[in-house]
What does this fold into?
Amino acid sequence: MRPQFVACLSLLVILCGLKATESVYAEEGMVITPPTQPATGPGGNNHPYEAVVTKRFGEGRNGYWIAYPKGVDQPLPVVGFLHGWGVFTMQPYQAWVNHIVRRGNIVIYPQYMESYIDNPADMTGIAGRAVADAFTKLGTDGIPTAIDGKFALVGHSLGGCISANFANDPEAYGVPKPLAVMPVEPGDSRRGTKIDWLLPKTFKSSAKIPAETLLLVVVGEDDRVVNNKVALRMFKEAKQVPLENRDFVTFHTDPRGMPPLRADHFIPLGFVNVPEPSRWAPNAYDYLGLWKLFDGLTDAAFYGKNREYALGNTPQQRSLGTWSDGVPVKELTVTDKP
It folds into this structure.
């Protein structure tokens, strides 16, 4: 069968399935919708800052963006945000970046790739040089300065591997030692196939991540792009980090309402210029999932509060809110023995 025909047929099946689901809810006289962003707390909309300023530095794969709250003249914590494979701009993660910034942080977002033939094995070094250079720009041209020592990392997919590499050996890459690290669906090859040995590797090791680091490794149960092979190795190899400082977190698909909540490889993507209800707009798995977890993790690392939203297998950590009919969304699975 021709690839074009197969692609069209697959799309038709998906659309028919969604339409059938939608018609069931219509016949019952209601549409079940997912939770919205909470007003307060980690993941919530209680931002102390409204406007975000974003500035670009450098060219191509060596370039990076710095995002910060507008009108701030005081030092702020810094978050390094590491994107996934094939992402050449900040746009797919813009909603999450804006949320982090509006909470009162500076975000450094290195590009580190500009072509699909770039070598993933080189990207940690490229990203490290970008982050190091970005720190020299802080405190200049209206950009806030950094609070010494308050640095955290979050990365998706290939960026999850880079975040762990940074945390494992920050001196080697010229970046500050992070207090908190959250690799999301980390991986640098497709599906753990038999040809993995042919592919360049990005993730190196997590065996030297300092014991005091707060570490969350996050996966989706229906991730068909990288599965959880690298994530499991990353978590288990970081055995020097005590279990009270690290958790392995799994999202589960919950199709109860419209739009359904999917625990695939693309949970973190939340384009800000696409109207609701869109697959790519932020949803409960952002607000009450990834954003909440990372907010809690950085709050705990930076300020000694909200730890229960990020670590310890607590109800606050596991909960993803309730559907509009009052049924809880499938909780996160949290474990220290994956």
User: Anything to note?
Assistant: The mean pLDDT is 88. Residues 36-335 form a domain with the Rossmann fold fold (CATH 3.40.50.1820).
